[in-house]
Amino acid sequence: MAESSKHIEYVELIYNFLRKDMLPESEHIYVAVDSPFKEDCPPHVCNNFRPDVYYCHGDKLIIGEAKTDDDYYRPHSIEQYCSYFEECAPYGADSIIVLSGSWRISASFANLIRNLKREHNFSTKVFVINEMGCCKEV
Fold it and tell me: Is the per-residue pLDDT at 2 higher than 70?
């Protein structure tokens, strides 16, 4: 299925966030991005979901998922988030999930993730970012 231009923009937000704020330049080669402009597709993870961005090197795992305004709260998306938390669990404090979407959904997105973490006792660190440059740790 072809992704919308907004979804592609949000995937690039995650990729740029990782490159600029989370990883040294020498680690950029380990980032796989699901994008029409990149050849390295992320692997499938728990429950056969494929994240938009994936980094795993040494003891660190980072999973990135981009969502549009109409998609972030759907049951399928919630299943994805839970699967990503499961995938991150063995890495403990060395795992991170980065979620991106529009500024309009940022607060609701963060609340949804906060509630999922509380409900399922997930401990993975999560960042919610948007196209306005805002970043919220959840």
Answer: no
